[in-house]
């Protein structure tokens, strides 16, 4: 009797505890992916990236011997139908930690169990599951450094054995066509551009890890803040779909640390920021909607406005901020330093609600991760745990001088230059025609003077403090 493996954000065959356990049962495996309602709210770029990731993973599974079955509909109904069709007696999956997925999975697990099906879930998306890490008094961590100290010497365990071959069910099981799901439809003009920049799949992820660990990791601590340089791992687009195991990254990174690679520990610390984000999101599931610090509920953020729209389009007149937003729209990625500067400009100089920025990132990032995105925005806005205080306002020019001293990053996205740099051309190619952008021409005028924007932000903050 076959076992259904329900894949979600775990599109890999290496270090996959659930799949290894499934294979160990000796049963034939039916690999399944369900496009259920949880994907309806996915932004255009993450949805496109999911499609690309699924195509790569389906090819990988086909080589391993068992084709990926694609089905659409409410997860429980799809599973029950497939159980009836195949006679499967077990369903396994890897756990997710956002509240809607947990509620869905809990309900499905109990329904399957009452129907006599062995429903089992496994870890694998994180190094340590959120509930496992606790403070001495038994609660969640709210500050990063003690969290890091708690996990730094904690062994996430040995890797699960790599799967090379899957025993398929000898049944003719219907699958949807991936193309029919049209996961890239909302991208319009941008899909072809994104395809130039994304590197979907497990093999690309493992290549990137290997390439990073033999080179850039050495200087990571000094160079990771310079957006023009290929100094970071670029693993985020893979981690969000589980194309790489965080435990694989951890062990490989630690081995480099022990061998004396100077940047390896800093790199591991960054990986642990992702863990921390999920720890926070698990314990505060409204983190993507509500200020983590309740007093911030009364701060008078600006709502939707023409300046917010100009920010989204990379037309603020601040070259560093515009480069970040153009990078986002063209490539589906922004360098971390540029994310912080763009987010700070929106929430401070434009005093615009961080949720407006969060939603735009969720629409455009191929590495979109609900926990890291929410933590990042609340960190910059000042409303999060362990956040930068609101009055610490990044000066985009100062940041540019420090982290892009030769203007290389800014120039890459300047379609106002002649000849138009290739990434700037990508931005023009991806941008909706309605934005009316054309090569050459004058650069946008600043939406607000840097000093005036800063003062207005500080005044709003003081007024709020005085009134709250
Ligand atoms: P590296 O520097 O090579 O780091 C390795 C890994 O560590 C990353 O892949 C990532 O998984 C993790 N990591 C590094 N920095 C952070 C961080 N600050 N927070 C959480 N995890 C981190 N990251 C996402 O993956 N998805 C998001 O949607 C996202 N939104 C963000 C929004 C804002 C406003 C900010 C300030 C940051 C956001 N980040 C997000 C975090 C960070 O910018 C990216 O993880 C990082 O730029 C990815 O590049 P990399 O893989 O080359 O990182």
Automatic annotation (TrEMBL):
Q: Where is the Photolyase/cryptochrome alpha/beta domain?
A: 1-127
Listed GO molecular functions?
A: deoxyribodipyrimidine photo-lyase activity; DNA binding; FAD binding
The UniProt keywords, alphabetically, are:
Chromophore, FAD, Flavoprotein, Lyase
- InterPro entries in the record, alphabetically? Crypto/Photolyase_FAD-like_sf (IPR036134), Crypto/Photolyase_N_sf (IPR036155), Cryptochr/Photolyase_FAD-bd (IPR005101), Cryptochrome/DNA_photolyase_1 (IPR002081), DNA_photolyase_N (IPR006050), Rossmann-like_a/b/a_fold (IPR014729)
Give the cofactor note text: Binds 1 FAD per subunit.
Keyword match Zinc? no
Q: Key word Transferase present in the record?
A: no
BP-aspect Gene Ontology terms:
response to light stimulus
The cofactor(s) it depends on are:
(6R)-5,10-methylene-5,6,7,8-tetrahydrofolate; FAD
The entry marks the following residues as binding FAD, namely 220, 232-236, 267, 367-369
Site features described as Electron transfer via tryptophanyl radical, chain residue numbers = 301, 354, 377
Family, according to the entry, reads as follows: Belongs to the DNA photolyase family.
Name this protein carries in UniProt: Deoxyribodipyrimidine photolyase
Q: Which organism is it from?
A: Rhodobacter xanthinilyticus
Classification from the root reads: Bacteria, Pseudomonadati, Pseudomonadota, Alphaproteobacteria, Rhodobacterales
């Amino acid at each position: 009797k076959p076992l259904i493996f329900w894949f979600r954000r775990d599109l890999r065959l290496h270090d996959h505890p659930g799949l290894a356990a499934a294979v160990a049962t000796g049963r034939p495996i039916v690999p399944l992916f369900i496009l259920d309602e949880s994907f309806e709210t996915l932004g255009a770029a993450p949805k496109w990236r999911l499609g690309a990731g699924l195509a790569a993973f389906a090819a990988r599974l086909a080589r391993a011997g068992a084709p990926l079955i694609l089905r659409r509909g409410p997860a429980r109904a799809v599973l029950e139908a497939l159980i009836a069709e195949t006679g499967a007696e077990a369903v396994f999956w890897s756990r997710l930690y956002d509240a809607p997925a947990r509620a869905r999975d809990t309900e499905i697990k109990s329904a399957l169990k009452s129907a006599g099906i062995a429903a089992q879930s496994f870890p694998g998306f994180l190094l340590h599951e959120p509930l496992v890490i606790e403070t001495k008094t038994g609660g969640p961590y709210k500050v990063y450094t003690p969290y890091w100290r708690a996990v730094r010497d904690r062994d996430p365990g040995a890797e699960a054995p790599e799967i090379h071959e899957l025993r398929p069910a000898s049944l003719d099981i219907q699958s949807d066509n991936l193309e029919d799901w049209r996961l890239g439809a909302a991208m319009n003009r941008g899909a072809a551009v994104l395809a130039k920049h994304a590197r979907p799949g497990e093999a690309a992820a493992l290549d990137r890890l290997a390439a990073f660990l033999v080179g850039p990791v050495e200087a990571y601590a000094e160079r990771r803040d310079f957006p023009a340089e290929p100094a970071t791992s670029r693993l985020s687009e893979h981690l969000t779909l589980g194309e790489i195991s965080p435990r694989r990254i951890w062990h490989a990174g630690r081995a480099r640390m022990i061998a004396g690679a100077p940047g390896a520990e800093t790199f591991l610390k960054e990986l642990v920021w992702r863990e921390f984000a999920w720890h926070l999101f698990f314990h505060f599931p409204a983190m993507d909607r509500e200020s983590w610090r309740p007093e911030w509920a009364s701060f008078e953020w600006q709502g939707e406005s023409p300046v917010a729209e100009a920010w989204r389009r990379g037309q603020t007149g601040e070259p560093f901020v515009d480069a970040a937003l153009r990078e986002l729209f063209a490539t589906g990625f922004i360098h971390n330093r540029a994310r912080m500067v763009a987010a700070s400009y929106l929430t401070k100089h434009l005093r615009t609600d961080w949720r407006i920025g969060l939603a735009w990132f969720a629409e455009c990032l191929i590495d979109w991760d609900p926990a890291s995105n929410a933590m990042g925005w609340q960190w910059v806005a000042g409303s999060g745990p362990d956040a930068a205080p609101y009055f610490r306002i990044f000066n985009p020019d100062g940041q540019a001088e420090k982290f892009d001293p030769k203007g290389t990053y800014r120039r890459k996205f300047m379609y106002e230059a002649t000849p138009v740099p290739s990434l700037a051309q990508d931005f023009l190619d991806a941008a909706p025609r309605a934005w009316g952008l054309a090569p050459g021409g004058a650069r946008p005028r600043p939406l607000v003077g840097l000093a005036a924007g800063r003062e207005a932000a500080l005044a709003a903050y003081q007024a709020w403090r005085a009134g709250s």
